[in-house]
Design the sequence.
């Protein structure tokens, strides 16, 4: 019943269904998810997974949106004993230690996880449901933007006068960690700058 619902309706459904047991993760690559949450779930925890390799611009942008939208922002860091520079030899292990393990701590004790995953992100996400059972994390996963196209995101951003990530006008279509993210070629796929020159397409958060 939520397949064709506006993301605000989906988020309000999540709040009504799960109450304070909802957690939101946001990459802060853009302002859409933070803004939607501020409208529909203003008391929800919004988690930023700080891998230790975030662009300084991302950290600034997250704090800027926290203040502008009144977000309950919580930053989760890797364990202190995580190996440094692991990305140089094993990006999968690096993502596991700096994203997947911190995510599990962020989700602990919660019943529903809200993400910004969209079907338009990549072929691997093309069948992303709006709501489904996340068996790996033993909770309900809510993807309110699943059906939105790039045009939908752009229209929402423009109609609400949302700020852009500082790197957006420097050619970064999808913004992750600085060692593994590059600007994209003009007209290129937005995620083509993530783990460029490798076969890797996902960090492990959304398996």
Sequence:
């Amino acid at each position: 019943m939520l397949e064709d619902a506006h993301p605000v309706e989906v988020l309000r459904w999540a709040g009504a269904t799960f109450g304070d047991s909802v957690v939101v993760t946001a990459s802060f690559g853009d302002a859409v998810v933070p803004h939607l949450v501020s409208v529909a779930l203003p008391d929800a925890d919004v988690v930023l997974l700080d891998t230790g390799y975030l662009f300084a611009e991302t950290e600034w942008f997250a704090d800027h949106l926290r203040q502008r939208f009144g977000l309950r922002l919580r930053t989760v860091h890797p364990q202190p004993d995580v190996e440094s520079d692991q990305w140089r030899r094993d990006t999968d292990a690096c993502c596991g230690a700096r994203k997947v393990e911190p995510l599990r701590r962020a989700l602990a004790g919660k019943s529903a996880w809200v993400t910004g995953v969209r079907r338009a992100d990549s072929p691997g996400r093309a069948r992303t449901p709006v709501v489904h059972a996340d068996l790996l994390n033993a909770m309900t996963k809510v993807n309110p933007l699943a059906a939105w196209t790039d045009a939908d995101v752009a229209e929402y951003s423009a109609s609400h006068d949302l700020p852009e990530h500082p790197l957006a006008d420097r050619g970064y279509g999808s913004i992750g960690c600085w060692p593994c993210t590059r600007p994209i070629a003009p007209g290129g796929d937005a995620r083509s700058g993530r783990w460029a020159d490798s076969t890797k397409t996902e960090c492990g958060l959304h398996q």
Residues 182 and 193 are 5 Å apart (CA to CA).
